[in-house]
Amino acid sequence: MLLRFAFPAIISLLVSELYSMVDTFYVGRCVGVKAIGALTIAFPIQRLMVAIGLCIAVGACTNVARYLGESDYTNLKITITNAVMLTVIVMVIIPLLVYILLEPILMNLGASSVTLPLAKTYTSIVLLGGIFQCLTFVMCYIINSLGNPRITLYATSLGAILNIIIDSILVANCNMGIKGAAIATVVSQATACLFAIYKFYQISKSINLNFNFNFDGKIIKSILAIGFTTFVIEISDAIIAVVLNNILFMRGGDGAIIISGTITKVSMFMYVNIIGISSAMQPMVAFNYGAKNFKRLKETIRKTIKVVTLTSLFLWALMMIYTEPIIGSFVKDRTLLQECVVAYRIMISIFPTIGLYYIATYVYQAMGEAKMSFLLSIYRQMVLFIPIVILFVKRWGVLGAWMAYPAVDVIAAITGLIYIGRVREDINEYLKRVKSRKLVMESEA
To answer: Whole domain around residue 333: which residue ranges?
Structure first.
């Protein structure tokens, strides 16, 4: 059951990550390493748009699911129309403001005189795709909450496949460089959005959805409040990227940023596996927790740890053995390639242990422990990584940045193990109380 849930989750995550991976692959091979640096600089802006889209999408689909369960079709329809209108308005205003202030923003994100022109070209085009990407998130998540979970996979797959095809045409064959990669991204996002709109239109007819352009303040506030945790989790990646880019640029220049961007993209293959399986565990834990079937719940957690650890070890071994050819598909410069290989192997040196941290986070989410799951969600990136990377870079220079990753992973893994242990202790304590009550009742009888 775990694997059946995990496979579509892993595929969906992998397909979502393919956008940036494909752009990095083509510009790295056809334009050069400076283009990879430009994409690394642009990443926080792209992540901001994703965070906004997912914030509205998660908030809207949660409300839609609740109203559907309550058979409150009036508020369900208001939620859908408000979510779509809010997305359109926000994703017109935010990209426009970023475009107006683009150059100073990019400079503050770590751009140099070398990477700024490329980053500016790429970002100014990609900003156009923000509204398409966010509308796709919102519509697919709403459709998902209405009972059709496959639409998200279809839409993201369509966009990612089209992005590969257009990138190969514009970047590899037409020599349009980083501009071609940006155009490919926007066109593929627009196509995925059109597909989502078509499916959304079909479903809207079945529920007699009519758009009235009136905002409901209470529902808007509810959408944003529910989605805020997701926004913080997503935007933390952007904040980490900004901090890391600026630290690396001061210590190692453009070369360090290029290395960071490359190894981060490659490592996503391993994160997708862990997050996909851990998120697949979540509904199983939630169901058994609600049903008070704690024996099954403990079994689910135990087997998830085994599956995550074994698959992580397998991927880790592949990445450690074939680091050079894998990274070499992105970077052709031999000197930079060797530096990337060393940095990457340091970065993932104890990677298989990090699964414990993600499992703990999803277990607490599944049990409805909102505060604890939120704290765990930001713990590794925001609480641990930023101070540790600053301290390590100050002590060991650019090498310290790569060393910070295993240091953070060790602490996060131990923390995850402790909190998983607490869940088990609470379950065992509950089972003891239940058994004690039964014994008392039997003795009284």
So the answer is: 2-441
